[in-house]
Amino acid sequence: MRRTYATGFLRRPGVAFALMLSISTAAAQGYPSRPLTAIVPFAGGSASDVVSRIMFDKMSKLMGQAIIVENRPGAGGNIGTAMGAKAAPDGYTIVGGGSGPVAANVTLYKSLGYDPEKDLEMISPFAGFTIVVVASKQLAVNSLNELIAYANAHPGLNFGSVGIGSSQHLAGEYFSQVTGVKITHVPYRNIAQYGPDLIAGTVPLGFQWFPNVAGPLGANGATALAVAGDKRIAALPDTPTTTQAGLPQYKVNGWFALLAPAGTPAPIVEKLHQLMTQALNDPAVRAGFEQAGAEVIALPLGEAKRFQRAEIEKYRDIITRAGIERIE
């Protein structure tokens, strides 16, 4: 009789919901009670890795638990993002996802192995990057106009990215659409392999986030020609915006976001959002982001899904116009 009573009790929707809420609330009260794993679906030293580690380090100090960062690159960020989507929804696995695997890849890939909108809880974007147009010193171009003239005179000029469908690949395709120049995409497995080729002039062009080309720029092997945003970035104060350089229609921004597996209890999601917001308000974190060429982004809890949907549509338009074939 007790078993029949309990089953009937749980079948009453209001009671069942209240019970689930009390369980998730109780789980969140002691959260976190052990270290977290943060999956970054890109290589160590990449733009996403740099800013994610800055933020996760501060969140770790705020929560009093370690956050162990695991780099799981591959397939344009899909491999690591899929791992995060399939993790237990208990708040102990989080993801530092990018605009590629969370938005653009919906259109680029025939199958991701996960649904970014259904299998992941997008808590908020936390870092915004502006594309930097870079050219090898071997090209001997010093402005955006000089680059366009050179590219027109040498059709098929190579540009590098971290993979087909990556933000840097799409930025190059968009540059081609805006300017009419014919350039050729060369995908790399990770950005460390691209740096030497940029300096040597083998693949002399790039549309990159600043951390990805900080080495070649610092070694004076490449020139930052323009920043594709509304304002200059602190990491490159002498580099003009594309508007200042005479190409106002070329604007490309990307972002990285904090995500958790779908089904993570709402109180834990709220806690993660609170910790993220606190971390991003720290002056040292903001300074670290600026040094990496990034800016802080933080949306109120609940707005990230609408942001994600708009970004999926934006990238779908760019990819469709570029005629990029879907990847198996």
CATH class of the largest domain: Alpha Beta
Task: Name the CATH homologous superfamily of the largest domain.
Answer: Bordetella uptake gene, domain 1
Strand percentage lies at 15-25%
CATH topology of the largest domain: D-Maltodextrin-Binding Protein, domain 2
Strand order of the largest sheet: 2-1-3-10-4-11
What is the assembly state of the chains in this entry? Answer: single chain
Instruction: Work out the helicity level.
Output: 40-55%
Q: Residue ranges: pLDDT <50 for 5 or more in a row? A: 1-11, 15-23
- Overall structural domain count: 2
Secondary structure class reads alpha/beta
State the shape. globular
Count all strands and give the number.
Answer: 11
SSE run:
HHEHEHEHEEHEHEHEHEEHHEH
Query: Number of helical runs?
Result: 12
Q: What is the average of the pLDDT values?
A: 89
Largest sheet: 6 strands, mixed
Distance between the termini: 55 Å
Q: Would you identify the CATH architecture of the largest domain?
A: 3-Layer(aba) Sandwich
Overall radius of gyration:
22 Å
Task: State the gist of this model.
The protein is 45% helix and 20% strand. The chain has 328 residues and is α/β, with parallel strands linked by helices. It folds into two domains: 34-128 and 254-322, 3-Layer(aba) Sandwich (D-Maltodextrin-Binding Protein, domain 2), CATH 3.40.190; 132-227, D-Maltodextrin-Binding Protein, domain 2 (3-Layer(aba) Sandwich), CATH 3.40.190.
